[in-house]
Specification:
about 120 residues; alpha+beta; Rossmann fold
Length: about 120
């Protein structure tokens, strides 16, 4: 089947940038994740994106293509080009999912406690 010559399928090596959320989640310098896509972030635009604060935290080992991005100063903005759900299990969640949930719990705990809205009852006339 002709897939246009650009389709990437299967497990690929992704090199993680130390000091990023992705690296902290996986605890490794290189990971292997499954792909099924044909589009990429243009490396021609990468310098502009990084100049505006985008962090490229993971790259395809063989071609320096963007695999994971992050936004600084955000509790958890991590986006991947691969599919972590393919390897995730209920008792062994993928590191990105596990740390996303952890960040959501930590964020919620950092917020002021909500008080129940005061309710008033009025008698029907």
């Amino acid at each position: 089947m002709d897939m246009g010559g650009t389709m990437r399928l299967g497990a690929e090596a992704v090199v993680l940038k130390p000091g990023t959320k992705a690296h902290a989640a996986y605890g490794e310098d290189t990971i292997y994740e499954r792909h099924r896509h044909r589009y990429e972030v243009s490396n021609l635009l990468r310098p502009q994106l990084e100049a505006q604060g985008l962090i490229v935290s993971g790259t395809f080992a063989h071609k320096d293509l963007v695999e994971i991005i992050e936004l600084p100063n955000h509790p958890w903005f991590v986006a991947s080009q691969f599919h972590p759900e393919f390897k995730s299990r209920p008792t062994r969640p993928a590191p990105l999912f596990r740390d996303f949930v952890g960040a959501a719990v930590a964020f919620r705990a950092s917020q002021p406690a909500e008080t129940p809205a005061s309710t008033s009852t009025t008698a029907a006339a």
